[in-house]
Design goal:
Blueprint (H helix, E strand, L loop, with lengths): L1 H8 L3 H18 L1 H13 L4 H4 L2 H10 L1 H5 L11 E4 L1 H9 L4 E5 L7 H10 L2 E5 L5 H11 L4 E5 L2 H12 L3 E5 L9 E6 L2 E6 L1 H9 L2 E9 L6 E5 L14 H18 L29
Parallel strand pairs: 1-9, 2-5, 2-8, 3-4, 3-5
Antiparallel strand pairs: 6-7, 8-9
Helix pairs in contact: 2-5, 11-12
Amino acid sequence: MYWLFRFFSVWPLAWLQAIGGVLGWLVWAGSPGYRARFRANVAQADLDFSQARPAIAEAGRFVAELPSLWLRPPGQSCLDQVQVRGQAHAELAMSQGKGVIFFAAHGGCFEIEPQALSEMYGPVTAIYRPARQAWLARLQKIARDRPGLSVVPASLSGIRLMLKALRSRQAIAMLCDQVPPEGQGMWAPFFGKPAYTMTLAARLALQSGAAMLPVTCERLPRGQGYVLEIWPAVAGLEQMDKNDLLAGVTLVNEAVERLILKFPGQYLWGYSRYKQPRVDAPAAVADGAAS
């Protein structure tokens, strides 16, 4: 499989995304369960299906562009593919000297976000959950460990490294819309329905005083690249009781909802966001890891 990734990594981005669009519709056509989840999640967000319909093809494009993003030569910048907006928000947050938590949802090209952020504001520490397949786990590590970007596993040691980075006034990055394993999250509203939600982002922000900066990365059509936007810091965490974790988690969920609604046509609506959490091995003690 690695060599298949290597083969496609040199293809033009426009070709990969064209293939991906077809792939997205094939998966839609062949999976009734996926279609049902997709429609149910869109309805729960109080959106018309037409607003989310483009996400069917975009899900395939996300998969198809991974070889290009993961196997880009280590010394080659990704910023020639990325238009960046909202840098003033990051600069303001960093000037406060308490570290920055960049967070995103599974929408657009979230894979390129930590790579771009690390080039601009590195060092950046990002947390992820390694794949169960050995070959894919190795590929993830190769792809995500880049100059200025350090990836840590979803484990107690990984959380400690992220907290250490924040206390050193550095930046960390994570995704905040996954269902964590049982015992590693809490039930909180998400688009008006209880969802088992990661607590890691809120805990780190409350413990460190770091600013939480939402990030989106819109995929442009026909391989024209991406638009990465850094949005204003989440307001309200700094006045919160550090022990009121549910309030912090709810505030983060609300911020994630706003990110999703900015580009509903590029969100992975097929994810089972409202499922019961799985039981993980005792060693997996972190949540909020990137997939």
